[in-house]
């Protein structure tokens, strides 16, 4: 996230009822980004203006095979991009290509203040035409969807692919990557970037210290202890953004208990946390890092970039993050750092293998239902899912997209991103992806808050489990939750 990274994640597609986001076709890709939603009460309470009206009016042109949505030449497109780990140069390249193709001029805004800049516009019924709704100040997708403020993207996904008009756009995507954008059975957000989550380390530091990448949690703790004995932190926790430590906690739950343990959380089961052996072992394992003083000193008071920068300075052995990390840390990463991705090490008797990884789509793009130039917004999104624009993104952002084989092979990826590609290949079908983070922003925030208290030693694992279960039980009482279910 180029500045805010407590900020990025995404997912896959319910049309195939996947329980994990991957299948072999999915493995051809891997890359960057994730995204966290931290809802604010001011937005939750103020976001009540509904949507659904087509305000395109003067922006409607004639439709044709090459112009399925009727883009009007000479019209304007209002584009807002989260300027985080991926920057916004990729979007400027897209906008230049769009202008050349259609004569449509883009009004471009690159910002990290998504809620601050856009909440008033949504409330006034004057939103942008297309938005990369990411970052620590992301407007929660579920809130926008409940208020009818997001366009159902079925029309875009069912349109002919730019590269192969005989195929629908949705049929050119990596299986499962539409899931994260689903709300109550409709795709209302396009999570564009293919992402993996897990641990990261410096290949250079590990070689110097004679450490081998750990495959078990005990081996992970042993390295952390050895690091501490040499004046190096074990884990660099991004204390001000507990999203990151939840990468470790939730990965451990899924790998220990298998897909059933993961789906119990997404499906709001009464024993998702309290009564779950996998959840108990996972939270106790993470708390052991705290209890034994294996966190990097001062890490609880740091932002994600502050903590990650100290990790870049070899002040910690590990950090948790998604695959946007490398791009986000370009300015602070030494040239010989040799950034590496590592699947979460295993607890004893885990159901999933070490190679299993959390993988899926991140960085949600939305089209507001009250966008003034809906034809151009739809066509812009269709073009995003072309090989030309997917390759533009890879070149500018060092990341892969959800388009199958969507990046020219001559695009060179940096070491960290390349290591995620290799990890994805090694994982094969053993990929998984939580959806509660997208479906239930309030529940997600409550669990993160509990994790923040745990890492600061203000609560114990038993209390964390109680708080996480309480968040699940509260969400389960919302009738709308019944429309979100994983088989």
Question: Any overview of this molecule?
Answer:
Helices cover 37% and strands 13% of the residues. The protein is built from 18 helices and eleven strands. The strands form two sheets. Strands 1, 2, 3, 6, 7, 8, 9, 10 and 11 form a nine-stranded mixed β-sheet that branches. Strands 4-5 form a two-stranded antiparallel sheet. The chain is globular. Mean pLDDT is 89; it is low at 1-54.
**Spatial shape:** globular
How much helix, percentage-wise, in residues? 25-40%
Roughly how many Å apart are the termini? 32 Å
Briefly note the structural class of the backbone: alpha/beta
Beta-strand content: 5-15%
Mean pLDDT: 89
Our Rg estimate from Cα atoms comes to 21 Å
Elements, N to C (H/E): HEHEHEHHEEEHHEHHHHEHEEHHHEHHH
Provide a concise account of the structure shown:
This protein is of the alpha/beta class and 487 residues long. It has 18 helices and 11 strands. It has helices at residues 41-46, 89-102, 114-123, 141-146, 154-157, 203-209, 217-229, 243-257, 259-266, 277-291, 304-312, 325-328, 374-384, 387-397, 415-427, 436-439, 441-455, 461-476, and strands at residues 76-82, 105-111, 130-132, 182-183, 186-187, 190-202, 233-236, 316-322, 339-342, 357-366, 431-432.
């Amino acid at each position: 996230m180029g500045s805010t990274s407590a900020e990025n994640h995404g997912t896959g597609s319910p049309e195939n009822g996947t329980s994990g986001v991957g299948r072999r076709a999915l493995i051809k890709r891997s890359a960057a980004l994730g995204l966290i939603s931290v809802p604010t009460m001011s937005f939750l309470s103020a976001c009540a203006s509904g949507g659904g009206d087509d305000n395109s009016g003067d922006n409607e042109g004639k439709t044709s095979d090459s112009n399925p949505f009727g883009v009007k030449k000479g019209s304007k497109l209002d584009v807002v991009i989260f300027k985080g780990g991926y920057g916004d140069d990729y979007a400027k390249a897209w906008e230049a290509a769009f202008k050349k193709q259609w004569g449509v001029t883009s009004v471009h805004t690159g910002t990290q203040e998504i809620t601050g800049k856009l909440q008033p516009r949504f409330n006034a019924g004057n939103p942008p035409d297309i938005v990369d709704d990411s970052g620590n100040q992301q407007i929660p997708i579920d809130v926008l969807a409940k208020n009818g403020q997001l366009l159902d993207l079925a029309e875009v996904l069912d349109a002919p692919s730019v590269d192969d008009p005989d195929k629908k756009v949705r049929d050119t995507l990596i299986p499962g990557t539409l899931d994260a954008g689903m709300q109550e059975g409709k795709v209302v957000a396009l999570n564009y970037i293919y992402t993996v989550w897990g641990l990261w380390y410096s290949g250079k530091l590990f070689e110097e210290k004679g450490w081998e990448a750990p495959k078990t949690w005990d081996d992970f703790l042993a390295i952390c202890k050895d690091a501490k004995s040499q004046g190096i932190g074990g884990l660099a926790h991004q204390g001000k953004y507990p999203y990151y430590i939840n990468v470790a906690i939730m990965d451990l739950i899924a790998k220990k208990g298998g897909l059933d343990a993961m789906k119990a959380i997404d499906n709001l089961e009464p024993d998702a946390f309290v009564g779950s052996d996998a959840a108990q072992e996972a939270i106790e394992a993470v708390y052991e890092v705290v209890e034994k003083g294996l966190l990097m000193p001062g890490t609880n008071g740091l932002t994600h970039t502050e903590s990650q920068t100290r990790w870049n300075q070899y002040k910690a052995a590990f950090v948790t993050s998604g695959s946007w990390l490398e791009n986000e840390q370009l300015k602070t990463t030494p040239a010989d750092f040799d950034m590496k991705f590592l699947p979460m090490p295993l607890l004893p008797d885990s159901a999933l293998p070490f190679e299993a990884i959390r993988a899926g789509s991140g960085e949600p793009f939305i089209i507001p239902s009250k966008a003034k130039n809906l034809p151009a917004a739809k066509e812009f999104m269709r073009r995003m899912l072309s090989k030309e624009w997917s390759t533009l993104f890879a070149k500018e952002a060092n990341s892969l997209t959800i388009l199958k084989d969507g990046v020219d092979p001559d695009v060179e990826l940096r070491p960290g991103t390349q290591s995620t590609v290799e990890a994805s290949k090694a994982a094969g079908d053993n990929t998984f992806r939580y959806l509660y983070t997208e479906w239930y922003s309030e529940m997600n925030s409550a669990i993160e808050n509990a994790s923040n208290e745990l890492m600061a030693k203000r609560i114990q694992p038993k209390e964390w489990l109680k708080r996480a279960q309480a968040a699940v039980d509260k969400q389960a009482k919302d009738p709308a939750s019944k429309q979100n279910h994983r088989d």
